[in-house]
Amino acid sequence: MRAILAGVAALALAATPSAAQEDTETPTVEQQIGAGGRPVGANWSRSPVIAQNGMAATAHPLASQIALDILKAGGSAVDAAIAANAALGLMEPTGNGIGGDLYAIIYDPKTDRLYGINGSGRSPKGQTLEQLLEKLDGADSLPPVGPLPITIPGTVDAWFTMHAKFGKLPMADNLAPTVRYAREGHPIAPVIGMYLERSLRAYTARQEAYPFEFDNARKVWFADGSAPEAGEMFRNPDLANTLEAIGTGGRDAFYDGALTEVMVDYLQEQGSAFTREDFADHSSDWVEPACAEYKDGYELCELPPNGQGFAALQMVNILKNVDLSQWERGSAEALHYMVEAKRLAYADVARFYADTDFAPFPEELLSEEYGRERFALIDPARAAPEFGPGEPKLEGPGDTTYLTVVDGDGMMVSLIQSNYRGMGGGLVAPGAGFMFQDRGELFSLDPAHPNAYEPGKRPFHTIIPAFVKKDGKPFMTLGLMGGGMQPQGHVQVLVNIVDYGMNLQEAGDAARFNHDGGRQPTEALEGPAADPLGTLYVEPGIPAETIEKLQAMGHKVEVVDNGIMFGGYQAIARNPETGVLTGATEMRKDGQASGY
Fold first, then answer.
1. Catalytic one among 400, 462, 582, 585?
2. Is pTM, for the whole model, over 0.90?
3. Which of 204, 212, 306, 545 is the most buried (most CB within 10 A)?
């Protein structure tokens, strides 16, 4: 296959991560041995999962099994997705939880259309930018921990909003498996154990720079002073009680009930401006996905801002102007065009992407003509020192979970959920069992910026689900978690499938790049970008000669060998004629694709 990447991960280049990456390193055993052989497909991948009656792909095998159990009990793909998401909040607390936000794209076979849901939360209605700046006491950005970066948790409301339209089973039934696991315990998975240990180190370090209340979080996850290790049984009875209350009491049990009083009282004690009214008034929005055709009948579909999904559509509109398949997938030429397309799209993200209730999105950014104009700015032989935003008539790190479920009726759910940086902002209300998100860190403090902090506003968001159509028909759910990696990850997977003929599993296992840098959605509009060129991080499967050529073209390239910053992928494709499902999951995570 044209897609063979010279020098697979087992024959890795010696990695020399930057100092900024040192915290992400974990001990590895050096092995002078290559990949084994396979009778079909690439040696560096494994077979996708194929089934017909239903399928789930999540970042934890137990969550995938829960989703299948819900499907077998008569639940819809939405019921199963909610059940899996609840389980991941318990089992993968380093990536998500009910203290965070949720986005989803749902294909409904009955109406033959895509539905998008924006389940992100807002800032306090009673706090102005001036009041926030007073609390920041001269800081030029919001901190990553404590009360100030918290926005209303949107996940629970999004669950009930989706369930009201597409659910079949009672919500109590959907949440019951996680309630049981939270009370009885489950063994920690290997990658999640690593992330828990990293989280404890990060919060301990941040307490020195930004003092905040962390005792409640310690009691839930780090009670003995250390992080639970792989294979260790973990219980969270507080979360069991919270989910049980939500299952029986509905959406209001979280946003307008006794638990709300506990959360608001606690947050106000920590210095937050949130009120009970802020919680009670929260609601999710049904939004319209937009699609951009790439080539050969493939269309990528994403949700509108405040998320960054449209950046992937902008990349598609740029890259459709060049035939990437004329070069090998691991070539400098193919990577150069994809990286420059990313940089062009993200320059617009940093300038224009924000809560559309406050700053309308310039629709011209998604036009094919605009894509051609931006493509014309790419020098085939040289990386541009800096790309500015276009003139039509935002990126940040984050820990996230993506999951997808397809049922036997053909309903397809693409769902992503996150607390943003790490496990969230470190704050846990007494007895609640979950951490509040720190998504508000992505607000800009420049009042002229579309993404500027305002009362009752949603910040710029990194988490994005995706969907792919083929010849106008629903074809594939797709997600690739991980901050600013997500749009560029979506496009890399699409390119792998369309231009290089990879199957779903190979498309996710193949070595990736993550370009980081350029202007950010949190920076002021005026003045130079802090890092205009940025750094091109690549995995060890990218050939040495490719890296040398990219450096000669002006790219700053670094190899990172632990997979952490390259996201977490899941996907399910459905054959529209036979209904056969093909699923793939991320080898960089603990996950599993399963079907029946």
1. 400
2. yes
3. 306
